[in-house]
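User: Modeling request: complex.
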Amino acid sequence: MSLNTSRRDERWVCRRRADFALRNWPDGSVLFDEANGQLQRLTPAAGGMMALFLDTPEWTSCTLAQRIFGEIPAAEDIELVANALASFQSLSLIERLPD
Amino acid sequence: MTAPTLASVPRDVLRRHLGSEGVCLRIPPFTARIRSPIPIVGEGLATLYAEYELLPSDGTFADFHVAVVYGRRFPKALCVFEMDGLRPFTPLAVGEAFAFLEWGLNWCVTGYCHTLISIHAAVLERHGRVLIMPAPPGSGKSTLCAALLLNGWRLLSDEMALLDPRTGLILPAPRPVSLKNQSIEIIRQLAPHAIFGPLARDTMKGTVAHMRVPSDSLARAAEPALPGWLIFPRYLPESPARLVARAKSEGFMQLAENSFNQNVHGRPGFEALSDLVARSDCYDFTYSRLAEAIEVFDRLPLPP
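Assistant: Request completed. Predicted assembly structure:
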């Protein structure tokens, strides 16, 4: 499976790290947004990704997939991460940086 | 010297005080000054709050100044709940006056006590760990709570968990257990010695009666405890008792939904609720027969 190169290299940033508090459990995570008091329940994988953003604010789909899945992530893995990042964006947790 | 209790006041004197300056009662962890000229309120207090500490009328700080007074008398006598002179609710029939006081006191705590995180739940304790059962009305929460407290569990509250965000402990707030409709008779049969207050008929919830708090639960009202179990009960007709592990992240979300003021506490509130969930074993529980339910709860393993 091939992945659109531009999608691999999309850059994402979490500018509001200070607003977020994250609690992880093996069965899932909960994210608190101090800016608006909202709570989000996240899958374990999404919780893991969010934890990485709270640690390091900027990632591409590819670097994030590498960190999660290993040195050379498969195209499917990168696609999975890219979809998760798009979901995070729709929740206003992260922003896509201009190319 | 032991503190005087409401039982030390003869009923006619109590009625007189209630009808004038009111009585100041220690209803842990709060103090309330209660006024009411309505006889059924005095009857309910004398029956259900007999063992609560009576505080001096003069110079005692009260967290809540509440009253249930007569509203209009014609064509049907109504009563009104007051807090600090405010009348936040529509009037109810005079026969519901004692239940109105109970509901009003709940409202005072959940609406005004924001040093603690309050969660709509039945709360009990055993072996030093707290069982929290958040559930919507009709889920059988209070019936189960009454059955458990009659079988060795200590009552912390039938109505709300009060979480101290600074310590992570749950504070006891033992008040009479509110039972509705068939549950009243079921619990009477289970515990013929249990003491009930006045029946309020034809309320929005049906028939309501309150059951007196066991003496031991009241005597230990100053003993908070650590959370241990977070269980979401549901009465399901003809269902065997069934306890199923629940994801902690789901448990957290439902706990937050049942909290009255978690949002007021911001990040410390989130951290406190998260710690509560982390310390607790989470389950869904369905049941139809109380005896089976009690057995299941007796076998609950103690969390680490």
